[in-house]
# Entry
Amino acid sequence: MAAPCAEMEPAAPPPSPPAPRAAAPGSAGLVCAQGRNLRAVLCQRCGSRVLLPGTATFARRELLLPAMRKKAAAAAAGGGGDVLREHWLVRDMFSFENVGFTRDVGNVKFLVCADCEAGPIGWHCLDDKDSFYVALERVAHE
# Structure
């Protein structure tokens, strides 16, 4: 039987566990030796702080996130999205400085900036209460 959140993930081998010491091209200079974020994570659009340094772990997992666009454009374009592979994994929702959650989409909630509602910047499966993924490509770092 397939996992309830499997419909949001592209067909691929099982997700790999977090890879703390293997920095990928997109994560160079962002990950410390312990695999945590060296810099603060910010909203690309408004600069609002999403995570403080040291509060998330680098993880590789293929996740399908809807494309980032304004609500009117998204409604007109229909589906579509991006398969993203590099994420910050947050284990406690109270570690976030500033994040909002969408309504349930199946068994998933998407993460957005709580100030400007840009997103989705991340993904959370309701079956796993302790895993919140923030896509490196969808956020800025300082």
Remarks:
- The beta strands are 41-43, 49-51, 57-66, 81-90, 100-101, 108-112, 122-125, 132-135, 139-141.
